[in-house]
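step=encode ok
step=design start
structure_in=
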């Protein structure tokens, strides 16, 4: 059984292991992961401020996600990640649907994802997101940039 539950302090170690595993492909491709993705102190502070969820399958944390209410019905999907052993099982699609139901007041969802992460592009587009732009390439990160996506509800 798959459940989406808020992360608590007792979950942090297991949650962090899953998050690091989920972003290992980005680290391999780009040489780094999202800013602060592997910093326990940042996660500890974030769970006090924002809705951060764990994806629990048969009692085991297999992924996580966060979102931010930016006001005026605009929400930012801060991250969605599933450990490598549980990808391509439909968990991500269920997670997106969960967030859309949980935050039914959202009129617009936005997110960003790395430019070479073709699997993410396909996934978000399948879920109804449309590419609306790109960030400027970062010279300090070897030209790395992000695609920006949006979904109007």
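sequence_out=
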């Amino acid at each position: 059984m798959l459940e989406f539950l808020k992360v608590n302090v007792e979950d942090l170690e297991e949650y962090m292991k899953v998050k690091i595993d989920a972003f290992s492909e980005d680290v391999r491709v780009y040489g780094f992961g999202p800013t602060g993705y592997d910093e326990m102190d940042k996660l500890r502070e974030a769970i006090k401020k924002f809705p951060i969820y764990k994806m629990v399958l048969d009692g085991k944390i297999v992924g996580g996600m966060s979102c931010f209410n930016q006001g005026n019905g605009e929400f930012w999907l801060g991250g969605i990640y599933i450990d490598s052993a549980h990808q391509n099982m439909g968990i991500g699609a269920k997670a997106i649907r969960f967030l859309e139901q949980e935050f039914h007041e959202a009129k617009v969802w936005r997110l960003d994802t790395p430019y070479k992460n073709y699997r993410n592009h396909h996934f978000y587009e399948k879920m109804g997101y449309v590419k609306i732009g790109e960030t400027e390439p970062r010279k300090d990160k070897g030209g790395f940039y992000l695609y920006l996506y949006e979904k109007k509800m």
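step=design ok
step=annotate ok -> The chain is about 30% helix and 35% strand.
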